[in-house]
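Sequence, structure tokens reproduced for absentees:
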Amino acid sequence: MAIVDVPKIVDKYILRTFIPLFVMSFAVCWFIVVMQFLWRYIDELVGKGLSGFMLLKIIFYAALSFIPMSLPLGILLASLMTLGNLGERLELLALKASGIRLYRIIRPIMLLVVAMACGLFYFQNDLMIRAQVRMWTLVITAKYAAPEMEITPGVFYTGIPGYSLYAKSRDAGTGLMHRMMVYDMSRGYLNPRIIRADSGRLVMDKSKKFLVLKLYQGQSFENIQTQSYNTVSEPVPYMLPHFDYSETFIPFDANIKMQDEGELSSMYVGKNLHQLQVSIDSIRPILDSTRNSYARIVQSDLLTSHYGFSPYAYEDTTVFARQQERIATLVKETSGVKPEEAKASLTLTAQDSLQAIGSALDKAKRITEEAQIYTGTDDTEFYHYRTFHQEWHRKFTFPVSCIIFALIGASLGAIVRRGGIGMPIIISIFFFVVYFIIDSFGTNMLRSESIPIWLGMWLSNILLFPVGIFLAYKANQDSSALNVEAYVIFFRKLFGFRGVRKVEYQELIIEEADYEAGAVAVAQAIEHTDALLRSPMLSGRIWQIWSHGAEQQALAALSEELDAITESLRHTPSRLLVSKLCDLPLLPTRLSPFLPEEPRWGRILGAILPISLPFGLFLSRVRTHLKADLRTTRTVLTQIAEEVAVAAKGVHRPAPELSTTQPTEPDSWQVAIHTQDL
């Protein structure tokens, strides 16, 4: 007899369930991410004379480049749907009942995801590099293929070398631009030509080697005499000619030429892990030495300006140490001086003080401008260091996020136990949005050097990994704290929606209900319902409800009374009576947990208007709903009393059947059981 290996069978079944869902979810997420890229760059790709084959190449390389972004979301959605389907079909419950723990159930999914993460790391480190370089090469090539399509209304366009163009508005149908300004810097920044025109067009000639700037109703400004940096203070002659129509030919070769991939290969998108590490190690000493040099230059300038010394080399450590000693001595001498004493020792006049203040402000402004220049240079160096360092960490963060999302998705699927697409998609989108919000926050923090680069890149994984561990622990313990249905039921009860009463008809009845006692109980329930409807808690003014919280005990007693009537009369062969029992509303035991039963505390709570006002509006709505339920209860109880009287006589009226099949004759032993001995 062959021995059946149950764990292996379970592993195969889990993988057969997971893989098709993963393929579907990954394909959908991949398609959405690629479409987002196309929507972002659609203006730079469409209408540039690109061939269909080149557009397909851009889409293909973009799809390869965005696999790391779509893979974690696909894994999260697939794992959530897999465990949710198992839970909804009670297969997860059967596996746990057979002694298989949750971590053993999700083990094949986790092993497969770890293999995917390793494959993603290899893909990012090798194949994706070439795809990114070729994609951005094609995008940049297409961007400068037809510059006349790039001019955005309200924004200066500088894509044409030596020219800056501005248009207030643009006619989408004809391409005519209105209220144009053109800055012609082709002859140098000291000899500009400025043109203002009512309207104009920028078109490409047939050879695609010249741009033709056609302007209508305008005026131009240009200097007649050529300027240089050694321009004297003499006035420069200029001219302001008006024109009705003007054409300017701008040399611009718009034939599509592929950009050199070597330029992008030297950037972070074209380097693998080893090359990134070499670039980081080479830039870090340069960045540190440059910052140290700039800091000492600024500090020496401050000391020189403050003490009036002549400029000196900041490498002179002797002078630097001497000034540091003087600073320490000055601080020690002035630290205990009171404002009155400092004012008494002041010997400068008001004019001298103003001159000193003005001189200090000029020196501070000069040093600030120098520091801004140093900051701009430092930002450029830090940008290269940061981008290389970010890309180095990104090759690890995406594979690790796949494992974390698989853990979160499998745990949530086991907790929620909801299959299909709706709920898993909502949960997946929520966690993915949270992941990218945290990732964007960390990226912005590391750009400002508020946190280290490694912490900014790993921040989302660091915060979500404990969430995955917590969810896995709760799912393994079968905790209902994260059961969505429990919260839905709670809020439905809180806002007055209590569902319907379910009473099943019994085909086999051992002991039939006592109809005489049931009739008495129904009559008493009708009286109690009428009394509760007339009670001040339900019929009085809404602001008086705080004094009648004790009447909730009558509501609890009526709810228990209805449950007892349902339990006692459900053992009846009358289908119509059972259907009437199902129509009885489920009454709450309390009007609201916010209403105290002690009148004194209720009056105190009602006197606190910031609290009692919103609670009063809430209680008004709940009370309206409860009164409607009580009226329905009285109507149904009256109908039940009529059916009890009919059933007590031995006449059982069947409820309307929805089935079209022919009724079968009951067996003799069923008739014997259903017949009441009068």
Summary: The chain has a mean pLDDT of 76.
